[in-house]
Amino acid sequence: MDETPELAAFRAETRAWLEANCPEEMRQPVTGDSDVCWGGRKWKFKSEAQKLWLDRMAARGWTVPEWPKAYGGGGLSKDEAKILAAEMRRIKARPPLSSFGIWMLGPALLKYGNEAQKLEHLPRIARGEVRWCQGYSEPGAGSDLAALRTSAILDGDEFVVNGQKVWTSYADRADWIFCLVRTDPAAPKHLGISFLLFDMESPGVTTSPIKLISGYSPFCQTFFDNVRVPKANLVGEPGKGWDIAKYLLTHEREMIGGMDMGSTGRDSMHQMAKKAIGTSKSGKLKDGLLRADIVRHEINAYAFGLTMERVKDEAKAGQGVGALSSMLKYYGTELNKERQELLMSIGGSDSLTWEGEDKRDGDPARTWLRSRANSIEGGTSEVQLNIIAKRVLQLPGA
Amino acid sequence: MALVLNDEQRMVKDSADGFFAEHAPVSQLRKLRDSKDPDGFDRGLWAKMAEMGFAGVAIPEQFGGAGLGMVAAGLIQEAIGRNLTISPFLSSAILSATAIARGGTEEQKAALLPKMASAELIVALAADEAARHQPNQVATKAEASGNGFKLTGAKPFVLDGHVADKLIVAARTSGADTDVAGITLFLVDPKAAGVSVKRRWMVDSRNAAEVTLDGVQVDGADMLGGLGEGFAILEAALDAGRACLAAEMLGVSAQSFDVTVDYLKQREQFGVKIGSFQALQHRAAHLFCEVELARSVTLKALTALDAGDERAPFFVALAKAKAGDVCKLATNEAVQMHGGIGMTDEYDIGFYMKRARAAAETFGDGAFHGDRLALMLNY
Lengths: 398, 379
Ligand SMILES: Cc1cc2nc3c(=O)[nH]c(=O)nc-3n(C[C@H](O)[C@H](O)[C@H](O)COP(=O)(O)OP(=O)(O)OC[C@H]3O[C@@H](n4cnc5c(N)ncnc54)[C@H](O)[C@@H]3O)c2cc1C
What we know:
The structure holds two protein chains of two kinds. Helices cover 43% and strands 14% of the residues of chain A. Chain A is α+β, with helices and mostly antiparallel strands. The longest helix of chain A is centred in the C-terminal third of the chain and has 29 residues, at 288-316. The termini of chain A are far apart. The model of chain A is unreliable at 261-267 (pLDDT under 50). In chain B, 51% of the residues lie in helices and 16% in strands. The mean pLDDT of chain B is 97. Chain A binds chain B through residues 2, 267, 270-271, 273-274, 279, 283-285, 291-292, 294-296, 298-300, 302-304, 306-307, 309-310, 313-314, 316-317, 319, 324, 327, 330-331, 382, 384-386, 388-389, 392-398, and chain B through 1-4, 261, 264-265, 272-273, 275-278, 281-282, 284-286, 288-289, 292-297, 299-300, 318, 321-322, 366-367, 370-371, 373-375, 377-379. The complex binds flavin-adenine dinucleotide. Residues 134-137, 142-143, 167-169, 219, 373, 376-380, 382-383, 386 of chain A line the site of flavin-adenine dinucleotide. Flavin-adenine dinucleotide (FAD) binds at residues 134-137, 142-143, 167-169, 219, 373, 376-380, 382-383, 386 of chain A.
């Protein structure tokens, strides 16, 4: 390895610290959503270990390793963060905290927020004290997000927000919302939009959960009826919210695209297949055609994983990710859907169980169904292809 | 190891891109093909490639090479892919040079490698016997005779076989036809008694020959590596070749993709540019992603070879499989999106499709390397 002495020392320290501080229970595979720590005011820790792990990591700023220390982060360089991630993978440590605050709002606030906003919100995200939801989509504004109509009209020192959001993931469990609102109805579509933050407990906010085909109800309809929001909660400039929205989306897309590559591990598919189907004397999986499908999938999964790595290395070398986040979102989610299809095939009738005594929320059928949303949420696959065609390939508009 | 090029590699890339575009564009391939050139490549170009240090890129400095390694070799072959350049680069500078550097004695290395780096000597690898690549299938026999061996067998697909000054022949000294143990490599003079070399005319206009050996006498000193231990050397040479082929296919994919995207911006139908049709935009955008994936796996394979990573064969198999599939897709899509003109011999895109097919088949296609990968992962 071509690691500098400083980085080698960092690796050694990190390894020792993780060994000493990561509870055994937090090194077990995640079997369902309740094993994931989302944090927030309403969060009920699944176990003492889950809380301990969060507190210890947050104290070092390692829930958000690359954020500046002043905002609750670890202040790590990209190389150090890579080492931390690798060392966590080594002992199979679960992420101490997962949240929209970390993946989406944080990066946007770091870039566009003012100092007061950063100091107010970032440390609370880092410590898992406030859970955020994303108020983008509306009934009439999905792929065509800029068609959104939720309005925010200035009244003295406050905006008055009226309208409806939909598909708002975890709105019923979130404490705050980052919300796209129209502050200037007269301006052209993309120019009248602003980026507003407010407390979900504000009077006039109501949510109602929607059930998914997987049986989960992760998302909601969210209604705003004369919700009063301090003017200071507007991020960036009024009417410039679209830039922030798009910047945040690139982070969301990278996150969704890379979602399945880390935690569950891509080796598990053929291992599961071996267990379920068995191998012949030659050591090959008994079902030759399924084996071929698995191989093709794993080739693409490795190739995609290496592409994520390369894009990150290039970003580090200053070559920018930009529209490539659309590539990662598109390819990663399509791969994950294929993966879930294959896992269903491998399981055969076992994977069809819907309810039973040993029901876990990580059951294959529900996970498979949930995965179908991957190429819809955060902008559909078709929209990502449009973005690549337009921004990267610069193909003419129709 | 970061998956980005370092400064030295960027320089190699820039000089290779410039060199091949200037000295060996597709028009050269067309000329060689149309004139049925007896050599099938341009010796002047090969000499220039030696001057540039390309012919010796993978040969250690102590043996007259540039010693730049496989990432650099891959960058050269990527440029070769973009321009469809014909030369003995793959056969002599990569496959044979790797085999000799890996398995040769100091004398053999000193005698051969410097001349290979300076393009005075072309060495070709005569290994494959099955039409579908299966490197352990070696029926060519090497029977003890005098103080050496007598070789008898047939090698139907020897890259650059008809212009080679020397052949590296894989022959069986013990074991059954598909055993890994018992394969031995020999250096053979193609002009020796009992060797016959017949040129083959291939779909991609590249050079290959059918070599038959009929009781060819070789000396004990002509053995490359240990008795019965040739397979490991052969695999090392093949993996170097496969990684470089992946790089070439990346170049073929990227070039046909770029040409196609340009065409989408120019060609008009129904009063608009065809590139404004979403059906084509989405296929082009998908292809963009596929080419990016091929780039990542190729760079990883070459980097792993340079680092002596024990997982290098895994990444090489991954790269050869993925880049091969992408290359076929990219060139097939290119022809389709060009419409009728894409089917004409006059237009270059067809050359890319032909090369894609041949390169994907050479030294194992997606199915071969997929199977290899699965076995490495124990399933
Ligand atoms: C599980 C889940 C969680 C979500 N969480 C959130 C959240 O937390 N916050 C939030 O704001 N939103 C969330 N969303 C909403 C999501 O962002 C939208 O569903 C998505 O942007 C698509 O919008 P739509 O549903 O209105 O579909 P439409 O836009 O109506 O799309 C329907 C179909 O038309 C295609 N289409 C549309 N426009 C084009 C075009 N120009 N070219 C080609 N095809 C096109 C689409 O690709 C799709 O196939 C979530 C969605 C899901 C499924």
